[in-house]
Structure to design on (789 residues):
């Protein structure tokens, strides 16, 4: 197992109940996992716990051979070697695309940095956008640059927080195909959270359904979502159309 | 174990410095609280028996009338300028903030100079029309005069906060009321005043805190309030202990006002929870109405800015040779260098505390911002008392050390500029803090988190990302603090080292010594710097 999460629990200071309760998950190397749940189910919190942006009240997270956190240790986010693509991409507005990507390569030599920027830009098909600023890019391009920036330092694990929520429907379909291709070509283990079953089905090797901070189901898209469109009767979460209304 | 893990994770330089800075802010206030309960001396018994009631009464009369008058002037101007279009409206939008550029003590002696026997009005009446007026109608150096001065130079606090609220938050309600056929008076009293309650209370509270802080106006006009009493007890009677007790009592009043503000504002916030900001579209006034609106605004603007400035310029023409003296440039250097030093320290402290507060959860992160802005609520004279007691105690502790170093003076820190700068920092930390905090609020925490996920520590993230994104807010905080310090009077009067004058203290000193024309040049310099800053903030930045 590459990622091993055991008995994870978390509570926000002002809330009475746990946001995450006894969450357990193992992930193989190179696997793409989707955490699917409605808003408020705690899916983004799980991502933040894995990233180290929140500290769990209980539980362990292991990535590779490294213990990211336990009841006695806590590795800071910058030391985890985990990459993340944020919901609103969080591209630094005062830096060009190239500088954004180089940002995570601070210890690399100048030559290696330049080569790596070229590689990841080629991967996301945006080689010509090196000198642009984020505000000069479309939503889809920003997302691909955010992915390139997260991939550049060669993270052990890549996290995506609602990666398609800022894109319109047509672009969403095109980009998720491309995203799967890119992730698979790099072989990086990935977790993305979404409230959209279509995203999960198109991208993930396995889906974890989360409800009120607890794992409700784990399985392949086939096992959980089936192949026909009649999700409503069988699904623990509402289908996309309903959940968006 | 988990507690230790938590401590280890949150313990970094930002936390350590935040704790140190907040303790520095707290110490002078604590020293007042501790000494407030010390055994009273005879002076205090005398003050309490015969004078305290008078101080409280005068202070409350000032607070009450200035509060009510600024409320009506500030909100009515905010409403007219937000809701209607009339000649010069665009200018008045920011021009109405300009009276804030004139510190009330400068306004106080300027108006006295205009209205007294040798002033321009009475001289003109005598020389041109051969009319000699009854002096009592032209005497401004009394309680109504002080109320007038403080009202006319402090109403912009209510105006700006209420106008910002009305322009952005009231659109739907006001437009609905218009569609339902309400008259403009009815909308003002039935819709505007109730919905802007929180904003108005915030503005009036600022005015009240400024009134409590004022020393220049009341002492020049000879009105006994808490601040004048603190000065007199301390310097007249040489009784710091009773000054501490007066300061403590004033602190209780300030805390009372803050509690009343909290209760009056209730759970209402300054803004509704909507991100869709629709600006209120002003209705074009026609015929007489547009001239009524214009006249009202012009009248307030004239007495709040034009008249005193013209008078000061006139006086300045009589004394402009001052400009070429070494002493005057020394004054500018003194004012600018202390304001620059204190503002730089303020910005550094504000950045550290606000960055700590936004990146952490828990008690400390919640409490620190509240303590940081404490100083702005506490009148300058009180802070001065707290700082002096603290530094004198410190000097006593260090006496042996000074001797060991072979230094002659027994009071080294408490007679130095360091003490004045320290007091400025405590008093105006809130000004820098609010600006920087709002800058951090605008960018959120996503960029910092993204930077950390890319391998940067909190500190590196700050320098490479956050600082660059909030540099406007940092600069804004610096300028606001700088201007407030340039204008500051009571703290500077009490804490300045021997023979150290700033533009503000010199202007005040000239006025007290009846050399009113001499006060004009330093006063104009202060107004000019403040006016330019107001222009830049509310005109250029608003456009951007």
């Amino acid at each position: 197992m590459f990622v091993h999460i055991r008995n994870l629990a978390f509570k926000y200071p002002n809330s009475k109940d746990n946001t995450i309760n006894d969450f357990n998950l193992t992930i193989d190397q190179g696997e793409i996992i989707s955490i699917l749940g409605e808003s408020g189910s705690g899916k983004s919190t799980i991502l933040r716990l894995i990233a180290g942006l929140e500290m769990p009240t209980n539980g362990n997270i292991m990535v590779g051979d490294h213990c990211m956190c336990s009841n006695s240790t806590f590795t800071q986010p910058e030391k985890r070697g985990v990459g993340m693509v944020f919901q609103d991409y969080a591209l630094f507005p005062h830096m060009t695309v190239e500088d954004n990507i180089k940002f995570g390569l601070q210890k690399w030599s100048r030559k290696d940095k330049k080569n790596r920027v070229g590689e990841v830009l080629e991967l996301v098909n945006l080689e010509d956008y090196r000198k642009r600023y984020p505000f000069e890019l479309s939503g889809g391009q920003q997302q691909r640059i955010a992915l390139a920036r997260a991939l550049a330092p060669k993270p052990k694990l890549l996290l995506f927080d609602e990666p398609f929520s800022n894109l319109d429907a047509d672009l969403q379909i095109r980009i998720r195909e491309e995203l799967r291709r890119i992730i698979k070509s790099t072989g990086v283990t990935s977790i993305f959270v979404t409230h959209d079953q279509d995203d999960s089905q198109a991208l993930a090797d396995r889906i974890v359904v989360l409800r009120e901070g607890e794992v409700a189901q784990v399985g392949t898209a086939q096992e959980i979502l089936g192949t026909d469109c009649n999700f409503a009767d069988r699904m623990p979460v509402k289908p996309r159309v309903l959940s968006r209304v | 174990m988990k507690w230790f893990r938590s401590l280890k994770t949150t313990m970094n330089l930002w936390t350590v410095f935040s704790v140190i800075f907040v303790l520095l802010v707290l110490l002078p206030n604590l020293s007042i609280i501790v000494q407030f309960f010390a055994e009273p001396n005879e002076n205090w018994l005398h003050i309490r028996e015969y004078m305290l009631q008078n101080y409280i009464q005068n202070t409350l009369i000032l607070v009450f009338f200035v509060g009510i008058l600024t409320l009506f002037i500030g909100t009515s101007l905010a409403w007219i300028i937000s809701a209607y279009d009339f000649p010069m409206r665009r200018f008045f939008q920011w021009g109405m903030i300009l009276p804030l550029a004139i510190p009330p003590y400068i306004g106080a002696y300027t108006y006295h100079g205009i209205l007294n026997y040798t002033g321009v009005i009475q001289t003109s009446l005598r020389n041109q029309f051969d009319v000699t007026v009854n002096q009592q109608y032209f005497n401004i150096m009394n309680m109504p005069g002080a109320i007038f001065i403080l009202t006319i130079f402090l109403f912009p606090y209510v105006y700006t906060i209420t106008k910002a609220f009305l322009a952005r938050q009231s659109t739907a309600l006001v437009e609905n009321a218009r569609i339902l056929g309400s008259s403009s008076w009815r909308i003002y009293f039935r819709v505007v005043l109730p919905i802007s309650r929180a904003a108005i209370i915030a503005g009036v509270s600022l005015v009240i805190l400024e009134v409590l802080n004022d020393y220049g106006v009341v002492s020049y006009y000879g009105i006994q309030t808490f601040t004048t009493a603190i000065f007199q007890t301390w310097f007249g009677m040489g009784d710091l202990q009773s000054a501490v007790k007066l300061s403590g009592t004033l602190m209780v009043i300030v805390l009372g006002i803050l509690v009343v503000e909290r209760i009056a504002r209730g759970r209402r916030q300054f803004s509704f929870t909507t991100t869709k900001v629709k600006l209120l579209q002003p209705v074009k006034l026609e015929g007489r109405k547009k001239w009524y609106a214009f006249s009202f605004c012009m009248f307030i603007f004239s007495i709040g800015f034009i008249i005193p400035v013209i008078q000061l310029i006139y006086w300045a023409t009589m004394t402009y040779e001052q400009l070429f003296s070494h002493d005057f440039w020394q004054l500018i250097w003194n004012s600018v260098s202390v304001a620059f030093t204190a503002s730089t320290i303020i910005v550094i402290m504000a950045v550290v505390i606000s960055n700590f507060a936004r990146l952490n959860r828990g008690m400390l992160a919640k409490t620190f911002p509240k303590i940081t802005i404490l100083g702005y609520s506490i009148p300058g004279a009180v802070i001065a008392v707290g700082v002096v007691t603290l530094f004198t105690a410190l000097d006593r502790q260090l006496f042996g050390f000074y001797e060991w170093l072979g230094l002659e003076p027994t009071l080294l820190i408490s007679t130095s500029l360091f003490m004045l700068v320290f007091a400025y920092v405590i008093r105006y930390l809130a000004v820098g803090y609010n600006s920087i905090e709002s800058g951090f609020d605008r960018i959120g925490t996503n960029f910092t988190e993204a930077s950390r996920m890319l391998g940067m520590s909190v500190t590196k993230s700050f320098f490479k990302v956050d600082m660059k994104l909030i540099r406007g807010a940092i600069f804004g905080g610096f300028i606001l603090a700088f201007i407030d310090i340039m204008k500051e009077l009571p703290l500077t009067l009490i804490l300045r080292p021997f023979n150290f004058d700033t533009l503000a203290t010199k202007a005040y000193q000239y006025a007290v010594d009846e050399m009113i024309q001499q006060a004009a040049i330093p006063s104009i310099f202060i107004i000019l710097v403040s006016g330019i800053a107001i222009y830049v903030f509310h005109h250029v930045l608003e456009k951007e």
Notes: The interface with chain A takes residues 1-2, 4-6, 8-9, 361-362, 446-447, 449-457, 464-465, 468-469 of chain B (CB under 8 Å). Residues 37 and 245 of chain B are 8 Å apart (CA to CA). The domain at 10-31+49-543 of chain B is CATH 1.10.3720.10 (MetI-like fold).
